[in-house]
Amino acid sequence: MTHLSDADAELRRVAEETAAALPVRALAAVHRTGRLAVGEVAVIAAASRAHRAEAFAACERLVEDLKHRVPIRKHQTFADGAEEWVGAC
Predict the structure, then answer these.
(1) What is the pLDDT of residue 3?
(2) 4-87, which class in CATH?
């Protein structure tokens, strides 16, 4: 099982790599933990660049890399009582 500190460390690496690859003025990302209801915000990403389209591109890269690299697992419970674990990494 992956520890939260492993996920935090990888999220930091992903953000640092994104910031190094793109000329961002500022970059931030948070992935929520704990119980979330369907539709609640799980990931927040923000970027500051000279132009809006560039900032959106930086956010998109950050979130896509986060989804593929950060070891985040979630336990899903469905209305019919079924359950499953989902893990991207």
Answers:
(1) 53
(2) alpha beta
DSSP state of 26: E
Nearest partner of 19 among 51, 43, 49, judged by Cα:
49
Q: What sign does the CA torsion over 33, 59, 13, 70 have?
A: positive
- Read off the pLDDT of residues 22-40 as tens digits, 9 standing for 90 and up: 989 999 999 888 888 888 8
Q: How many CB atoms lie within 10 A of CB 70?
A: 23
Q: b/e string for 5-43 if b means 16 or more Cβ within 10 A?
A: eebeebbeebbeebbeebebeebebebeeeeeeeeeeee
Domain ranges of the chain: 4-87
